Structures are given as structure tokens and as C-alpha cells.
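Our preliminary data section would be incomplete without showing what the modeling component actually yields. Below, a chain of 92 amino acids is followed by its predicted structure, encoded as C-alpha cells that our downstream tools consume directly.
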Amino acid sequence: MFFWRKKKLNVFNSKPVFEDVLSIILKVAGLTFSDIFENILKELGLPKVSIPLLNTVELNKIVAKTISSNIGDEKAYLALREIKKLLDEYRV
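Predicted structure:
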């Protein structure tokens, strides 16, 4: 009998995994860059700005890479541990 072995998550390999998690969330949400930009302005209470924005097919990967590039390896690891802890409370 074969058992599928899970990969061990550590500080050094957590950033790409964190980026993949963000990318999946954004992809499933189906938001465009314009949607995200408008929601940020709305949350900040700023007036709507009309700027033509490029909506690329791989927006989710671009946004995920941008967010994860500003997060260190250790913080990405801690974020993934918190996400896992939250998901462990539910049966998916």
C-alpha cells in the first residue's frame, strides 16, 4: 500500500506556497484589477477615479507575486500556519 507523503513546510519554502494560496484565492474570486482598485478606493473612503487599467489574464499571479514580494519568508510561514489552523477547524 502506498501513502502519499506531504511536503514539509518550513520558513525557507513558505513564500512560494503563500504566493500560490493568494493566487488561487484571487483566481476563484474572479476579480479584475479595476474591481480590486475600486474596492480599495471605496474602503479608504476616496472618490472614484477613472483610470483605464489593464486587465490581464494572469492578474491573480501578478497580484499574488506583488503581495508576497513584500512579505518575508518567516511572515509568509506564519501566515500559512494561521491559515492552516483556521482551516483545520472546518471539514472541507
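The radius of gyration is 17 Å. The mean pLDDT is 85. Preliminary results of this kind motivate Aim 1 of the renewal.
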